[in-house]
Amino acid sequence: MKRSLVTLGLLAAMAFMPGVQAEVDVDALIKQAEKAAYYAGDDGRADARMMIVDSQGRKQMRQFTILRKDVEDNGDQKMMVFFSRPTDVKDTVFRVEKHAKTNVDDDRWLYLPALDLVKRISAGDKRTSFVGSHFFYEDVSGRAVSQDDFTLIEETADRYVLKAVPKQPDTVEFAHYIVEIDKATSLPVLINFYQADGTNYRRVESVQVDTVQGFPTVLRSKVSDLTNGGYTLMEFRGTEYNIGLPEDVFSERSLRTPPVQWLK
Predict the structure, then answer these.
(1) What is the pTM (predicted TM-score) of this model?
(2) Is 177:191 a contact under the CB 8 Å cutoff?
(3) What are phi and psi of 170, to 5 degrees?
(4) What's the pLDDT score for residue 18?
(5) 5 — phi, psi (to 5°)?
(6) Which residue, 39, 61, 91, 242, shows the most beta carbons closer than 10 Å to its own?
(7) Which residues contact 210 (CB under 8 A, 6 or more apart)?
(8) Predicted pLDDT of residue 123
(9) For residues 47 and 234, is the Cβ–Cβ distance under 8 A?
(10) How confident is the model at residue 22, as a pLDDT?
(11) DSSP for 41-73?
(12) CA–CA separation, 134 vs 139, rounded Å?
């Protein structure tokens, strides 16, 4: 009995010794980060503005409203993005049917009002520019954690640092990325993407985080092109959760007839 008590005492002491850390459940960690980043509440809305700055300092602006409804946490999800400014993208709509737990690619469509055309975004285009910005289509709807293999490479007082390697490397332009997850909020706050030669060519970062209705929420995020220069800053305003969005908001009909009562 004395030996058992001594052993327990040593283990307890080791837990507080510098350099000695409890084992981290990586799967649970990344699922919690995914939930915190993309599944706050059962649904939500936010007004967003993107400022796109190219390598020569020239600026463009995009303004839109995002509506989102979860089928289940860390699972399927529906999203609509309705553009209001500037005039060349006004009434453009981006629609997503996310399939997070299957091997089926997410369904994405873009409605182009000038042509009255619904364009399907192919799986191969998910990591291309979202309406001329440095964000990719996949950045907006979220990359499912099931698509990558994660390894914990460092733990600091405030963050977990993980390396992610794509399970299907031929479908993406990166060889791996390093993601830093804030311990206090579970939010991914910094992601650096690397090519096969080790070049860090792209960065996604949370610039401002606050609590909205009890949920840690990114209010400003930034994507930087580290190779050619330029960046896009996205700001969110009027964020709300659990507002009771009906299913029919996320239908094909809403592409041409937006649900105006949810966009004000």
Answers:
(1) 0.88
(2) yes
(3) -75, -5
(4) 45
(5) -65, -40
(6) 39
(7) 216, 217, 219
(8) 83
(9) no
(10) 62
(11) SSEEEEEEEEEEE-TT--EEEEEEEEEEEESST
(12) 10
Tokens of residue 84, six digits: 């209001």
pLDDT at 105: 84
Query: What is the C-alpha to C-alpha distance for residues 188 and 140, in angstroms, rounded to an integer?
Result: 14
51 bridge partner residues: 61, 233
| Paired tokens of 143 | 């990359």
Amino acid at 38: Y
Contact 65/47 with Cβ under 8 angstroms? Answer: yes
Indicate the length of the chain as a whole number: 264
For residue 35, give the H/E element and its range: helix 26-38
What residues in the chain have per-residue pLDDT under 50? Answer: 1-20
Enter the DSSP assignment of 187: -
CA angle centred on 79, ends 43 and 116, rounded to 5°: 145
Contacts of residue 251, Cβ cutoff 8 Å, sequence gap at least 6? none
Structure tokens at 103: 């091997």
How many separate helices (H) and strands (E) can be counted in the chain? Answer: 4, 13
Question: What letter does residue 197 receive in the DSSP assignment?
Answer: T
The amino acid at 43: D
Q: Could you tell me how far CA 212 lies from the centroid of its own chain? A: 17
The two three-digit tokens of residue 17, written as one number:
């010794």
Task: Look up residue 211 and give its two tokens.
Answer: 């609590």
Helix (H) or strand (E) holding 5: helix 2-14
Give dist(CA 34, CA 28) in Å, integer.
10
